[in-house]
Amino acid sequence: MQIADFKLGEKVFIIAELSANHNGDLEVAKQTIRAAKEAGADAIKLQTYTADTITLNSDKKDFIIKGGTLWDGKTLHALYEEAYTPWEWHKALFEVAKEEGLYCFSSPFDKTAVDFLEQFDPPAYKIASFEITDYELVRYTASKGKPVIISTGIATEQEIEDVVAICREVGNEEIILLKCTSAYPAPLEDANLIMIEDLAKRYGVVTGFSDHTLGITAPIAAVALGAKVIEKHFILDKSIGGPDADFSLDKKEFSQMVKAVRDTEKLLGKVDYSMTERKQKSRQFARSLYVAKDIKKGEVFTEENVRSVRPGYGLHPKHFKDVLGRRAKRDLNFATALDLKDINMA
Questions:
Q1: 3-state DSSP call for residue 93?
Q2: How far apart are CA 272 and CA 3, in angstroms?
Q3: φ, ψ (nearest 5 deg) of residue 71
């Protein structure tokens, strides 16, 4: 699968999530995109909604945030009014991303956002964790024919099965499921990264990880477990504050994560049993058969005068038992590498 010309599987696709980390300032948003490029991100992701397209302007009990989050006590409308990225910024942000060589796309939160984003021809769409239950939004987004990245944070097994089926029903097989824990920040013990591989096998899709834990350990482990996409909140400077600052990485931290992910990719490598030049060179330190005592022509090879030792220039140790009891064809000095031509095999 590809996102634009980026081939998933050849490298991990690393997404810097802008979210609310512009703190209401367009210049900060632009600087953040540039910093994400410098930090090694492959893509920048926006969020496209307004407070009125995502919730109702109500202070009734249902609309007041609770449950031990960073935003307890606020109304949903107030939070999203603070956090949203103005739609009139999108053109400039897409342009800056293009200038920097970053892929830019967004999470639409209703159909009007999808229609709005189409003008920018994004290389993919993201369905946010809490929107996975909005089947009509999933259907409409998938119908645009772009790869659909879906966070599974709050989803039941049935809902994951449903949204995958919905994408396929509209002819979209370009599905990426992200393991995600919808807690901000997310405890490490709730990450369950082992599911990355299971999601891939169970649904026949590409899988990745949308991370809300603190630090960079989880993304590294996710890549080792098969994640092809990593998404992490990115902030220019945590001192600017904002709703998502506490669980975002700054430029230095994000750079460290990118390096660790790329190093992990190198460590994983590929299935390869061939004898590379490096491996062949290292075989000098392997075991092989050497003369352990001076041997006269016609003398019998024994466990006392032949040994399996380092280095590896002599006969392979697998021949040891075959050599024992045979006679030497010539005089052999101590520490001579044994060779088949030295042995009377008759």
A1: helix
A2: 28
A3: -115, 15
Helix segments in 101-224, DSSP class H: 111-118, 135-142, 157-169, 195-203, 217-224
Instruction: Name the residue with tokens 């649904």.
Output: 203
- What are the DSSP calls for 208-243, one per residue? EEEE-SSSSHHHHHHHHTT-SEEEEEB-S-GGG--T
Query: For residue 311, is the peptide bond before it cis, meaning its omega torsion is within 30 degrees of 0?
Result: yes
CATH assignment of the domain containing 336: 3.90.1210.10
Of 29-38, 244-253, 305-314, 326-335, least confident by mean pLDDT is 244-253
* CA distances for 135 relative to 203, 205, 209, angstroms: 17, 18, 21
**Contact status, residue 250 vs residue 237, Cβ threshold 8 Å:** yes
Percent of the chain's residues with pLDDT above 90: 91
Residue with tokens 């609309």: 63
Interval 221-228 mean pLDDT:
98
Dist. CA 100–CA 109, nearest whole Å: 26
255 and 37 Cβ atoms separated by less than 8 Å: no
Same domain, 231 and 143: yes
Q: In 3-state terms, what secondary structure has residue 46?
A: strand
- Name the one residue in this structure whose structure tokens are 């008759």: 346
CATH number at residue 21: 3.20.20.70
User: How would you classify the pairing of strands 148-151 and 206-211?
Assistant: unpaired
Cβ atoms < 10 Å from Cβ of 129: 20
Q: What CA–CA distance (Å, rounded) separates 121 from 229?
A: 21
Pick from 268, 298, 317: which residue ends a domain?
268
Domain interval for residue 297: 277-344
* Residue recorded with tokens 């097994």: 157
